[in-house]
Amino acid sequence: MTRINSKGRDVKGAGGEGTRPAESLSVDSLSVESWLVSAGRERHAGAPLNVPLMPASNFVLGGGRVYARNEGVPGWEALEEILAGLEGGDAVSFASGMAAVAAIFDRIPVNAIVALPMDCYQGVLSLAEMGQSRRGWRIERIAVTDTAGWVRACGVADLIWLESPSNPLLEVADLDTICAAPRKAGAILGVDNTFATPLNQRPLELGADVSVHSATKFIGGHSDLLCGVAIARDASLCAELRRARALAGATPGALEVFLATRGVRTLALRLDRAQKTAKELAERLERHTRVSCVRYPGLRSHPTHAAAKRQLKGYGTIISFDVKGVAADADGVCRRLKLIQHATSLGAVESTMERRALHHGQEHLPETLLRLSVGIEAVEDLWMDLEQALGEG
Ligand SMILES: *Cc1c(COP(=O)(O)O)cnc(C)c1O
Question: Which of 181, 189, 269, 339 has the most CB atoms at less than 10 Å from its CB?
């Protein structure tokens, strides 16, 4: 069996008959678009092109796999190999994005200092608050744009947790500077890279210890699975995350891994289309009389446009904007949508939109802030839907 791993080596049984030379398929010699399509496939004569969906909890003893919670189902390797290659580390897949985050947070000792962004994924904040009450953590909230504050935190905190671009204000942190700042011994610096995707940002290259994705979003891309991944360079951290996954039972299922692998094959196409559309829609929304503020890192008016331009390969597919009026006006816009789905979550082929302040813990946001995740529909159809839903000023 020949599989090309992220370092371009044969994992098992090098170069048999009918096998393409392994070296031609290393992540270093391919563009990411080709890597996404070709990595993780077996290439021996008669092999299926895709790793088959193989639901199984246990395996006949004597081989490498014993029990799926520990060694995983066939299919893990392919997904982890693809994602590891994209960000230049070793990847550990999880049952969800939160499962990946929880495995990392679980490594943080009692009475630790935990630095979190002001604009932070709500589940992550709640997890940290649990650490505060059960483990005596001290939580320090720092504005995404307060680079000096983050640099200071790197010297004292045990966990430095960044999200960039942030949810839902899409603020871009100065990761170059923050990741390079001296850290307290034993500290972990993690970046939630979900909004950027591995194609727009590679946190490990900037100096982060671990990068995390909710693969539920862009990697899966079809709103049909929950999955997560943590990517790190340090072998002992990866080994500990694998162990934590097995012991917590935070193992992704066979169907999820199959769907995530199938989904990620088209990530470059989906992202390319959706972020072009997002830029166009953001510019049009900025001129709309019923909209008072548009936040999109690709707009010159965005407070962190300069950092976004320097650091991100693309500006992403998420736009947040405020509707003029009160909460009921913004709710009305969502209710009138016909094409765009009135739904939470993001990063899928279909566009979704919701009023964020509806959610617990998001009360700090403007009450009329709508978050739009742009999908791959035609730009003019999306604009027509937004225009009819926004109505006349
Ligand atoms: C959705 C999301 C998560 C949590 O991921 P799940 O797959 O839902 O567990 C974490 N961070 C960000 C930025 C997210 O959007």
Answer: 189
**Closest among 44, 26, 48, 43 to 35, alpha carbons compared:** 26
Residue 177's Cβ-count burial label (10 Å; 0-12, 13-18, 19+) is middle
pLDDT tens-digit series, residues 212-253: 999 999 999 999 999 999 999 999 999 999 999 999 999 999
C-alpha pair distances (Å), 330 with each of 108, 211, 290, 354, 380: 40, 34, 10, 9, 22
What are the sequence ranges of the domains in the chain? 3-264, 268-390
> In sequence order, what DSSP letters do the residues of 301-333 get, joined into one string?
TSTTHHHHHHH-SS--SEEEEEESS-HHHHHHH
Architecture field, domain 268-390: Alpha-Beta Complex (3.90)
Q: What token pair was written down for 375?
A: 């999908």
Tokens found for residue 15: 């170069």
pLDDT digits (tens, 9 = 90+) for 176-202: 999 999 999 999 999 999 999 999 999
pLDDT of residue 29: 87
Q: What is the pLDDT of residue 163?
A: 97
Q: How far is the CA of 252 from the centre of ligand 1 (A)?
A: 15
Preceding peptide of 203 cis, ω within 30°: no
Bin 37: left if φ > 0, else alpha if -120 < ψ < 50, else beta. alpha
Residue nearest to atom 6 of ligand 1 (CA): 97
Residues of the chain with pLDDT > 90, as a percent, come to 89
Give the pairing type, strands 113-117 and 138-142: parallel
Residue 12's pLDDT is what?
A: 38
**Are 3-264 and 268-390 equal in CATH topology?**
no
Q: Could you confirm whether 217 is annotated as catalytic?
A: yes
Q: State the architecture of 3-264 in CATH terms.
A: 3-Layer(aba) Sandwich (3.40)
Which residues of the chain, if any, have pLDDT below 70? 1-25, 393
